[in-house]
Amino acid sequence: MTDAIRAEGLVKVFKGRRALDGVDLTARAGAVLGVLGPNGSGKTTTVRILATLLRPDGGRAFVDGFDVAEQPHEVRRRIGLTGQYAAVDAELTGTQNLVLIARLLGFDRARARSRAAELLERFGLSDAGGRAAKTYSGGMRRRLDLAASLVGRPSLLYLDEPTTGLDPHSRNELWDVVRDLVGDGVTVLLTTQYLEEADQLADDIMVLDHGRVISRGTPEELKNRAGDQVLELRTVDPSQLPLAVKIVETVTSAPVGDDGLRLGVPVGDAAVLPEVVRRLDEQGVAVGELSLRRPSLDEVFLALTGRTAEASPSDEETNEETRA
Amino acid sequence: MSAVTTRSSAASPENVPPVPDRVGLSVTVRNGLQLTWRSIVKLRTNPEEVLGLMLQPIMFVTLFVFVFGQAMMGDWQTYRDFLMPGIIAQSVIFATMGTGFTLSQDVEKGIFDRFRSLPIARSAPLIGAVLGDLVRYAITVVMVLLVGLAIGFRPDGGAVGVVVAGALILVFAFALCWMSAFVGMLARTPMAVQSFAMILLFPLTFGSSAFVAPDDMPGWLAPIAANNPVTHVVDAMRGLMLGGDVTGPVTWTLVWAFAITAVFFPLAVWAYRRRT
């Protein structure tokens, strides 16, 4: 089986800071690879290298067997890129944006028009096709951007934080579109800051932190490592919290964090809940609040690295980087 | 399942034209023209910008002719005739600022990333921006000229003189817009491009023969103004439109245009490749 993307030891240095510090990556053809990480972890830099926009300072990457640094044209023939911000021309209409790209890709006038109409239809933008993209809502712009990256029917699609800043409704719509594309056989590389997004869409996940891969596996494996859910508990009397921490630690045998008011712990199995309640009751701890929720990215990081995720302050540089 | 079968299932070949194996000259030209279309279409969908292109010449010509005319040359009609070639040049030169501004905007908004991730000629976005702007400059020339004609400007050089003068300023603007593109690719934000270009273009145009003859300037400024490339363009345009010496200033203009292009075209391409 051929891998759609294979990268080994990618290194990228910006002004002395190692934005990527030896990243290995494999995307299976026809699957969704989720790259999860906080701001500044190297997600965008990775995508830009794989999309031929940036040359790596070390390591190699292949898309469908073609070297991104040596055969960029071959790579560009196969990929579609949707960036963090919607890279459509706001002054042009939705139709004009898509027709322009189709024409650039060598479609004749008639076929460019029909391809544009087809994509607008597919993304629910038919009515807006004649309006300038600057009048679109955030969700509509992202969909147009995604449509623009699909004009040439790429076999490999890069989605760089496609839902950052979108409302839940638009986000769900975009997820459906991605699932459709995967159904068509497109390989997707998705970067995201949201664990839930990776969980929803990805077949494989790799977690990036400070330019290094700190974990990889299926969403199931990752959740097993990081805890499927987080148990949160507040005692009525804060002085009882240390006792509660001890009890919960015994039951879950996982590291319990607390902030002086409440404790939190990843739990692999919700069945521990009755046990926790029973023991607390036995010890006379009055529980003020008890909840189970999905872990945040921070908690995944805590579980994987023993520290919280911190956005690197120099994340801006990913947009300022220059080509050597 | 291999990547190849994935690709063919995702792509229905009858709907997608084959992408050429390599980008040759014909593809570069085609892509460049397609992106020229983009910047021209933007003019159509952007009535504000067209309005700006139209109103600015009206404002500048009327203000200069009627506010300064009498004080400068005794009556506004004489100054109008002196001013028209100068103000056409000034308008177009200021319009070259737009090239760097739009390029910088395209980079900032990630539009260039989109283009660069496509299998198209790498220089096409730059070519498209510059060619599209030449159309914009031509519109500027026509607009200023129309305002002049409306207030009684009747150049002795006739249609031929006017057209050649217009072509000359476009050649000069073509050279300058590489400088603008260079600044645009170096500056971090479009606003920075604008302020830097203003600092550059104001002295360049006002310190020339466009509005006042260099002979009437203070002793230290006169020689600088007389050797300002903009002075050569404006003098050449005056010669062509109103009569007078043509050969000298036209030659100087072409030499300057060539020199500016020779310096800033490679620099612009270098900065473009570096940034994109």
TrEMBL record, chain A:
Which one Pfam family would you cite for this protein? ABC_tran
Please classify the protein's predominant subcellular localization into one broad category: membrane
Q: Where are the transmembrane segments?
A: none
Protein's membrane topology? Peripheral membrane protein
Sequence ranges assigned to domain ABC transporter in this UniProt record: 5-235
Keywords on record: Antibiotic resistance, ATP-binding, Cell membrane, Membrane, Nucleotide-binding, Translocase, Transport
Q: Give one GO molecular function term.
A: ATP binding
Q: Where is the protein localized?
A: Cell membrane
Family per UniProt? Belongs to the ABC transporter superfamily. Drug exporter-1 (DrugE1) (TC 3.A.1.105) family.
NCBIfam families according to UniProt: drrA
Supply the name of the protein: Daunorubicin resistance protein DrrA family ABC transporter ATP-binding protein
Organism, by scientific name, is Nocardiopsis alba
UniProtKB/TrEMBL annotation, chain B:
Where does this protein have coiled-coil stretches? none
Q: What subcellular locations does the record give? A: Cell membrane; Membrane
Residue ranges spanning the membrane: these are 50-70, 82-103, 124-153, 159-183, 195-213, 250-272
GO function term, MF aspect, one: ABC-type transporter activity
Its GO biological process annotations read:
response to antibiotic
The protein's matches in PROSITE patterns, at most eight in alphabetical order, are given as:
ABC_TM2
GO CC list: ATP-binding cassette (ABC) transporter complex
Q: Where does the protein principally reside?
A: membrane
InterPro entries the record matches: ABC2_TM, ABC2_TM_bact-type, ABC_2_transport, Nod_factor_ABC_transporter
Its membrane topology = Multi-pass membrane protein
Source species, domain of life: Bacteria
Which residues does the UniProt record annotate as the domain ABC transmembrane type-2? 48-275
Q: Which UniProt keywords apply?
A: Antibiotic resistance, Cell membrane, Membrane, Transmembrane, Transmembrane helix, Transport
PANTHER family assigned: NODULATION PROTEIN J
Would you identify the family this protein belongs to, as annotated?
A: Belongs to the ABC-2 integral membrane protein family.
Name recorded for this polypeptide? Transport permease protein
